[in-house]
Every structure is written in structure tokens, then in C-alpha cells.
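Q: Here's a chain of 349 amino acids. Please give me its 3D structure as C-alpha cells.
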Amino acid sequence: MNNKLITSGSLRNRLVLTLIGGGAILALLLFFAVRNYATQIAQQGQDNILRASITSILDAASIRDGVAEIDIPYASFSMLSTPSDDRVFYAIFHDNKFLSGYPNLSSGVVKDDLKTTFTSTNFQGQMVRAVTATRTLVGVDGRTLIRVTLAQTQDALSGTLDQISRNAALLGGGFFILATLLSFWATSATIGQLMRLTNSVARRGPQDLRAFEKPVPTEMLPLVKSLNSLMGRLDHSLSQSEDFIAEAAHRIRTPLATVRSYAEATLQRVDTIENRQAMRSMIRAIDESSRAASQLLDHAMITFRADHLERQDVDLVELVRDLVVRLTPIAEMKDLTFDLKHDNTVMCK
């Protein structure tokens, strides 16, 4: 019988890889979600400081004797100080005419008074966050428009984002490790149900074909039902086969035993040597036929039970003694005697 089975991979490995892959995807999503949210919060914090700074500059604008004057408060720039000493750039325009600062500093378009526009741009080879706001002043000569653009480099923000990214990476890595450990635990718990069922089947003896009655998970219920159905059919088939072999043995041995009894009775009645030899030959032929039939039936039973033999210790002395008892009648017909010498017991496994 060929016991080699074709496998298609490990169910445990598939389940582990699926769960670990899902954990890795979730860890990446967690990393990017935390980093993006932190970036928005940090950028919003810088924008609020820039808005407060440019508002204080615009609040310092006034008109004296028909001339626009802006006395930039010290606090406007001091509030922009950072541990990384970010650079600050500004440009002030009066009715679109440059007044002070960096004339090349780009500014956003602001349509409404006291509204601000934020942009990220490159200025003098550095990425800066710029804010533009306007204020309309009313003087004797009419209205005048003051526009201020304030920009700050993002070295401190980049450092903060790097730190947040490292923390988010550690958080994502910790989540991935936890998900991996939970994946192994969940896989072991899931496969453990199947292994317990396998061990339960393996521990059963060759005659134990009872149905499984222990509680099993819902997903394993079709498998257990199929096993119970198979074992029921196998038990029925074994019973029918054993009944057939027993009936065959009875129908073969009984006629042979009857014929042998008649032959032995006839042997006792005949007197001539030729007839007695003929009857002895008939009895030997009957015994050989009976023994051959018994061996064939035993071989059929052994072959039928070959997949689940019950192994036990055998006493060779007892086995030979039983054989001598069975062969003694035949030996007496041939005027032979058996002399059995043996130890007390000779066990064989």
C-alpha cells in the first residue's frame, strides 16, 4: 500500500504569512497616518505663529502726515525664534511698491483685507513657509494698501518631523511585532484544534470505530461529519466481510470434518492392508485440504486486517504445544510419536 501523500504547502505557514502580511500593512498605514497627522499639526502650529507675527506687523502700520509708516515690533520676530535658529525673511509693499525687506520674496495673492495666504516655496536655496497678508489704511488722501510677506525656514519643523517619524516608526514596529506574536498564537490555537482531532484518531485502536462526539469548532464540523460517516461505512463493511469469512470457513470446514469422520470410521472397519492404506491416504488428503482451506481463510482475514493489526507477545512454547496437539492424530495414523522438550516459556514480540 502506498502511504505517500501529496502535500500542497503548510496551512499553518499560509495562515501565519497572511496574518503577518496583514499586520505589516496595518503597521505601514499606522506609520503614515501618524506621520501625516503630526505633519499637519506641526505645520498648523508654524502657520499660527506666522499669522500672529504678520498680524502684529500689520497692526503697527499707520499713516502720519500722509505718509505710511511701519514700526516693526521686536516681538514680531522674537516669536519666530526656534532652537534650530531658522532664518526669517520679510517684504513690505505699499500700494504694490516695495518699501522694505527682500524685494524678490514671492507673495501670495490676497484679495480680502486682513486675510492671509500660506504658501511653501523655495527662497535663496531653502524651503520656506511664507505667509502674505494685507491691510487697508484710510488717510486724508484716500485709501492705501499695505501688503506684508513673511517667510521662515523649516529646519526646526524638519527636526520635529524627523523625531515624530522615528517615534511613529517605533510605534509601527512595535505594532508589527505584537501582530506577529498574535499571529503565531492565533495560528497555534487554530491548528491546535485540528491536531487534537488528529491525535484523537491516532490513539484509537483498530476495533474502535465509534463516532466522534466531542465538541469541535463550527469550521471543523463538516470534516468531523465526514469522518463519522466514513467510520460508520467502514464498520459496516468490516462486519459484513468478517461475517462472510466466518460463513465461508464454516461451509468449507464442516463438510471436510464430516468426510474425515466417515473416513476414520471406515478405517476402523476395514481389515485388508490395501484398504487401510487407501483410507489413511484419504484422511491425509482431507487433513491437507482442511489445513489448506484454514490457511487460506486465515490469510484472507490477516490481509483484511493488515492495516490495523493488534500486536501482542507470543509464547512460542505454547504455540508449538498447540501445534503438536493438532498434528498428533495424523502422526498416530503414520505410527509416529512426538516428543516435545522445551523451556518454561519462550516469549516473542
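Q: Can you summarize the key feature?
A: The radius of gyration is 51 Å.
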